[in-house]
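Model the whole thing, not chain by chain.
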Amino acid sequence: MGDQLEPDFIQALEHRPKSGITEAKGIPLIDLSPSINSSKSDDLANLVAEIGDACENWGFFQVINHGVPLEVRERIELASREFFALSKEEKKKVSRNEVNLFGYSDFEITKSVRDWKEVFDCTIENPTVIYASDEPDDEELKELYNQWPEYPPDLRNAKTDIQITGTHSLELRITERSVTWLFKNQTSFMRLNYYPPCPAPQLALGLGRHKDAGAMTILAQDDVGGLEVKRKSDGEWIFVKPTPDAYIVNVGDLIQVWSNDKYESVEHRVTVNSQKERFSIPFFINPSHSIWVEPLEELINDQNPGKYKGYSWGKFYATRKLSNFKKLTSENIQHFVLVHGSGHGAWCWYKLVPMLRSSGHNVTALDLAASGIPTISDYFKPLMDFMDSVPKRERVILVAHSSGGLAVSRAMEKFPEKIYAGVFITALMPGVSLNISTLSREALQINYST
Ligand SMILES: O=C(O)CCC(=O)C(=O)O
């Protein structure tokens, strides 16, 4: 990360931060003191209801009077600043790698775009036990250990501090039954985030839009600000103003599944700025690798049938953690490049584009016919230009329809290092009520840019 913004950090137009973003005045601020000081069941019931409302309506809230000593937070924050101020060479001595999945990284990718940040991850249970592979029937386990830099020594002591924080976090009861058993042999971990000043903050993100895959996240942010949450009510990105000594809590995907969608995991992202560095510390609360995740039995009935198939948290977690080192894109999010046949326009992808996008993939549909097709190389040109613009280290999946296959074959010869796979299809099946003119009309309403 230097003074120039490399192309792999540049977000697609629709994901770039907007100026004049709304401030999230409405994010609930919850006083947790009744959970610490009060033994009155009414006080606790009110608090539980307040947290329930916040989870249901926002998926995000801030807590104050949480009982986590301020010195604990200040100690970790100081250690984090000291660590990230070290030289790259020093920090890379504790890099994450295939053996040590915890440690330092300056190469985080979210939805195929690089994040403008550095991180240091450490686990709570040391060792943390996870599945050794993502193969469903492979029961082999492996142990993950923390690695610590020599300096600052306080980072190592953060482990004890984290445990204190963790104990407090787990005391946040959001259902009427205790959930602590889920977190025996937890796979929770803490991340130190460092967002350096960025030369082009209007083009990049410190952390791309994402939802947290675990149960719940508790986040300490400094006073610089940059966290944005996608408001559930209208899909607007809103700024979460830092509140001194507050923690931000957000619902993760596991709570969404356990609650059968009553509490939804909400998208969030981090913007950066050109002047100030920013630090934050998320604590990701995750269950044991052995936990099978499905909607809680007591919430399911004929009126409210289960909306999710069960899945193994351990297998999901192993896929996530191990995939960091198998490929450079994360979360199995791909960039599909659709190349139509000569007689068609980009409209012929009208069904595939929304389908791929709704699964979170990036899609570019190229219009080859736009080049007028006087020669074969004119016909190929939009794809060749596009492949030239694909950043180093990024790879795309090319999908060709009919004679678009000629262009895709050419690109596969010329840019093999930028292509994961080429898919060749010969026919499309529009719905029965659609003909060429309705297809064209629909296509005009879709924005096909990346
Ligand atoms: O830095 C922040 O405010 C948010 C961090 C976050 O969402 C994450 O690390 O997953």
